[in-house]
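Table S7 (text form). Paired inputs.
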Amino acid sequence: MDVGHPVDSALAFVARFPSWRSAAPEVLGAFGLATAALWREIADEDDAEWKRSMAERAATLAHVLGGGL
């Protein structure tokens, strides 16, 4: 997503994998929250623009996956 692909495009890509398609919605939400938390921590430790961008995109992904924030 950091190279400019929207969340919908990323989700279309991962939908090709049976493990993603068969995952329970709450599991995908937890994955989104964990990913967002990881990138938020990384960006808090190092304020590089690309790390902040990844944290923002991960937060968006978490929201879309139902994890909220």
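Next pair, protein 2 of 2.
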Amino acid sequence: MQNDKEIKISEFIFKKREFQALRKKQNDKCYVTGRDLTSANINGSHIMPIRSGGEHEFENLCLVVEEIREIKRKMTDEELVRISADIIKTLGKKYGYSIKTNFK
């Protein structure tokens, strides 16, 4: 049985050179949180998740802190922002945060 989706296999390999280029491009800051990246907390992720149609290519890679890795692998930037806003609206007041949302 053939799958309706075409699966594209990328030949791109994420090597040290690309890793260092991303660290420099991101100024050693997490793509999502802006937190400092260290050798103890750094992870690679896709900007547009593969499951959402993203490609495994350099232009679609970013570096994130360990705490955000699993979430970023499964969500687009927009999905991540929306759920973060919901979390701040629900729990933020308890910790001194508030948010005003203007969704498109």
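The chain has three helices and two strands.
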